[in-house]
């Protein structure tokens, strides 16, 4: 089976698996935990953060032009809502990245264990090429890189077409890195993992971008809707659960794809090994021609 066929097969399996009650619970658990943590943090910091941000936007030479431009364009009340909107725009990537990291670090191992109980993977040997510490470092480093890219590109998120393009690319890259490592951590050696990530890098990136595009739906509404600003806490909770469900789907998708790819890699290596042994035996046998 070629890579694209496997991508679509894994997509179908993940779509069906996401509707399982256990998977729905696995999407609710990180959503609830992250919502409580961020909800408490926002409740404690909302007023002082808005005051600081409002002062910064008004006095800074780098940002004062935004308010001046909005007022010049006819938005006389811009000063009243520009600071909350900026604050929401800053929170969106922070909350999204924290949710993805939480799911990758805590939920993906559970999903992998559930998937490997299926008949298709019951004989897949666990070679444990990655550990908890390695996963933590890899996750943290990937998240920091993504966060830096988000902060660098955040100003152009205000341009309507880019708000639907940049988030899928960034989330796709981060999803690919986190899911690929954590899915293979317990079953592949480090060499097998490197081989698979190199051999399947383009299908994996495409899967990550598709997952990012699905995640861009709540991002687009969250970042551009006036209703999202007015009802920020409620909209945030709904968007977070949608994010969580999409990330669980992505974890299932990557799990099915990479475990099948690992089986195929080991099967190919076994065939090569048997062919080499057969040639050696043929060379050692006496010729009675």
Task: Outline the secondary-structure elements.
Layout: H1 3-18, H2 21-59, H3 64-72, H4 78-115, H5 132-153, H6 160-163, H7 166-184, H8 190-199, H9 201-224, H10 226-230, H11 232-284
Helix pairs in contact: 1-11, 2-4, 2-11, 4-5, 4-7, 4-11, 5-7, 7-9, 7-11, 9-11
Give a written overview of the molecule:
The structure is a single chain. By secondary structure, this protein is an all-alpha fold. It has eleven helices and no strands. 31% of the residues are buried. The protein has one domain (3-44, 89-273). Helix 4 packs parallel to helix 7 (166-184) and helix 7 (166-184) crosses helix 11 (232-284). The longest helix has 53 residues, at 232-284.
The largest β sheet comes out as: none
Count of the separate structural domains:
1
Give the SSE string: HHHHHHHHHHH
Number of strands: 0
What characteristic shape results from the CA principal axes? Answer: elongated
Query: What is the radius of gyration?
Result: 24 Å
Give the helix level as a range of percent: over 70%
Q: Distance between termini?
A: 41 Å
Total helices: the number is 11
What number is the mean pLDDT? 81
Q: Quote the beta fraction.
A: under 5%
Uncertain runs are: none
Classify the secondary structure makeup into a structural class: mainly alpha
């Amino acid at each position: 089976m070629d890579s694209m066929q496997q991508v679509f097969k894994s997509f179908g399996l993940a779509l069906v698996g996401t509707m399982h009650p256990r998977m729905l619970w696995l999407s609710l658990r990180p959503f609830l935990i992250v919502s409580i943590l961020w909800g408490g943090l926002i409740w404690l910091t909302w007023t002082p953060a808005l005051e600081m941000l409002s002062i910064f936007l008004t006095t800074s030479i780098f940002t004062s032009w935004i308010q001046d431009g909005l007022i010049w364009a006819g938005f006389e009340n811009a000063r009243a809502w520009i600071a909350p909107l900026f604050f929401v725009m800053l929170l969106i990537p922070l909350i999204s990245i924290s949710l993805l990291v939480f799911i990758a670090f805590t939920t993906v191992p559970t999903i992998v264990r559930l998937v490997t109980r299926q008949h298709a993977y019951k004989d897949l040997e666990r070679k444990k090429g990655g550990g908890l510490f390695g996963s933590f470092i890899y996750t943290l480093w990937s998240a920091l890189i993504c966060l830096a890219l988000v902060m660098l590109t955040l100003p152009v998120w205000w341009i309507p077409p880019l708000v639907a393009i940049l988030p899928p690319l960034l989330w796709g890259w981060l999803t690919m890195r986190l899911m690929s490592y954590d899915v293979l951590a317990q079953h592949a050696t480090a060499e097998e993992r490197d081989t698979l990530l190199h051999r399947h890098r383009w299908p994996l990136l495409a899967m990550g971008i598709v997952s990012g595009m699905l995640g861009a739906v709540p991002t687009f509404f969250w970042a551009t809707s006036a209703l999202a600003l007015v009802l920020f806490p409620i909209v945030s909770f709904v968007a977070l659960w949608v994010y969580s469900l999409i990330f669980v789907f992505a974890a299932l998708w990557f799990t099915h794809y990479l475990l099948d790819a690992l089986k195929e890699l080991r099967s190919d290596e076994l065939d090569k090994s048997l062919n080499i042994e057969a040639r050696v035996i043929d060379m050692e046998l006496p010729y009675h021609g």
